[in-house]
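Re: [ENG-882] Designed sequences occasionally contain unexpected residues at chain ends

Forwarding the minimal case from QA. Structure tokens:
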């Protein structure tokens, strides 16, 4: 077979061609130049982000006899015979995961390399090894012969035992940015003379979800078509949603145009857009809406919180489109446009009156009175105030939980929780709790105390969503691993800030255990209190 698929044809031959992982490239390059190589490396990260490509490139360079500034010379015997070298051994742990295979590997590492300085074992999907295989591998991994280097690659780092991680240098591969993927696709389409619109390249980058290999696979398939590749070509070839599709859909929903957005929803189904793909796009847009509300107070979809929760329940269900349609229609009845970002007392009174009129317009004429108007306006105003106070209290709870996580923080407790994490993942995998599995995949346990756990997430959006699930997670942890813990989620940027603050203050005894305030859950108590004590606003504790 002469033809090579694009992701294989354009696999990087040197560090200059490796894209999207500059932090890893720099560290590996320096270790080569200074000749400070480890005996074991662990590459972890999402699919298609370059783990195996980097492993192969690293193996090639460390065996090159005359590497030039960390890049292979392509002239020596190890370079020229790299693709057929017996000294570079690739193992797929998904199909070679038993103790017998590991025992064979353990015997083979004793054999010296044939023509290279190092014998490199690249073990892909290493998390698939069985428990007995891990146990058989540990001693060899810790003290291999001087001529052996192990490179372990995995997409599911939480399944790799801590005893293994502690014996390796860990490198975390990140999703490649859309901009980097688009630029790489442009470079390749120019070399391959593929005629394609720039907007298609952007959609391919979005579809790949940070994986360059996936993007190249999609481009490779489209390149078989004759003529110029347009956005319509892409839509007809795959069941995809463009950004414009999603924006139009959300706009129709915000404007309460039920017939129009249902027609558009049906067209997505007819085009073959999968329910999970649609849910991903909708939740991403709704989470942006929720964050906008949390940070500015401006909410265009009044019940966005409930809508997100209801749509999450549609994952991996039958008749997804019917469920999505049901959820959207059910929630649209309460969609009220709220354009004021900050409510002054005057605006608050105006809002109470406007909303009251909307409620009264639905009543019978004989039921309308000035007393009812005043009463309804006051109730709505109280609800808005209570919601504002609730947001303030939620923010305080996050600060308190961060503080309490640092109080009596303990590495042993963290290691114990990491082991419990595996138990929890297995439980949620078996029960199909996708919302918690998503939480585990996109977060890192940073600090553990006897009462609290501080976890960092890869985005601010995820921290907002996961904090909304934190109390529910606490209940599950209590039931499954019999531990009472409170969780708080913050994005990576804030985690770095909090860590630096802790480091600078840890010897000053700044951190003391704090009690959490209660969130207002029932406004009726406040209403009753006002009837007794007058118009003074009462905060429910």
């Amino acid at each position: 077979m002469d033809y090579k698929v694009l992701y294989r044809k354009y696999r990087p031959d040197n560090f200059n061609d490796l894209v999207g992982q500059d932090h890893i490239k720099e560290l590996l390059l320096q270790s080569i130049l200074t000749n400070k190589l480890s005996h074991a490396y662990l590459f972890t990260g999402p699919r298609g982000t370059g783990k195996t490509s980097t492993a192969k490139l690293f193996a090639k360079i460390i065996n090159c006899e005359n590497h030039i500034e960390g890049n292979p010379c392509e002239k020596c015997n190890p370079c020229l015979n790299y693709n057929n070298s017996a000294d570079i051994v690739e193992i797929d742990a998904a199909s070679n995961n038993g103790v017998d295979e590991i025992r064979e590997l353990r015997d083979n590492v004793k054999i010296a390399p044939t023509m290279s300085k190092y014998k490199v074992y690249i073990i892909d999907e290493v998390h698939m090894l069985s428990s007995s295989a891990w146990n058989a591998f540990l001693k060899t991994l810790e003290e291999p012969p001087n001529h052996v280097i192990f490179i372990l690659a995995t997409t599911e780092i939480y399944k790799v035992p801590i005893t293994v991680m502690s014996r390796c240098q860990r490198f975390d591969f990140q999703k490649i940015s859309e901009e980097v993927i688009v630029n790489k696709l442009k470079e390749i389409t120019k070399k391959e003379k593929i005629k394609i619109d720039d907007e298609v390249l952007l959609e391919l980058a979005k579809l790949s979800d940070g994986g360059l290999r996936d993007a190249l696979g999609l481009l490779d398939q489209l390149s078989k078509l004759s003529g110029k590749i347009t956005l319509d070509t892409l839509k007809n070839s795959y069941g995809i949603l463009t950004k414009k599709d999603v924006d139009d859909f959300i706009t129709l929903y915000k404007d309460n145009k039920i017939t129009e957005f249902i027609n558009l929803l049906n067209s997505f189904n007819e085009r073959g857009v999968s329910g999970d793909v649609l849910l991903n796009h909708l939740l991403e847009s709704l989470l942006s809406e929720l964050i906008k509300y949390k940070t500015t107070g401006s909410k265009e979809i009044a019940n966005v919180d409930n809508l997100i929760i209801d749509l999450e329940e549609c994952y991996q269900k039958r008749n997804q489109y019917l469920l999505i349609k049901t959820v959207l229609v059910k929630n649209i009845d309460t969609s009220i446009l709220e354009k004021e970002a900050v409510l002054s007392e005057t605006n608050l009174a105006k809002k109470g009156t406007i909303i009251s009129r909307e409620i009264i317009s639905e009543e019978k004429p004989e039921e309308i009175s000035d007393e009812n108007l005043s009463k309804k306006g006051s109730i709505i105003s109280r609800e808005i105030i209570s919601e504002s106070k609730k947001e303030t209290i939620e923010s305080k709870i996050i600060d308190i939980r961060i503080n309490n996580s640092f109080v009596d923080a303990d590495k042993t407790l963290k290691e114990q929780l990491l082991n419990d994490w595996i138990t929890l993942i297995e439980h949620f995998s078996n029960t199909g709790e996708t919302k918690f599995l998503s939480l585990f995949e996109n977060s890192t346990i940073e600090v553990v105390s006897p009462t609290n756990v501080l976890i960092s997430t890869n985005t601010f959006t995820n921290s907002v969503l996961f904090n909304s699930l934190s109390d529910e997670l606490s209940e599950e942890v209590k039931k499954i691993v019999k531990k009472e813990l409170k969780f708080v989620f913050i994005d990576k940027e804030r985690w770095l800030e909090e860590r630096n603050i802790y480091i600078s203050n840890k010897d000053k005894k700044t951190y003391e255990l704090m009690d959490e305030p209660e969130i207002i859950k029932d406004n009726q108590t406040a209403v009753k209190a006002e009837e007794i004590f007058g118009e003074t606003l009462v905060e429910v504790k």
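QA comment: On inspection the terminal residues look reasonable. The domain at 178-237 is CATH 1.10.8.60 (Helicase, Ruva Protein; domain 3). Proposing we downgrade this to a documentation issue.
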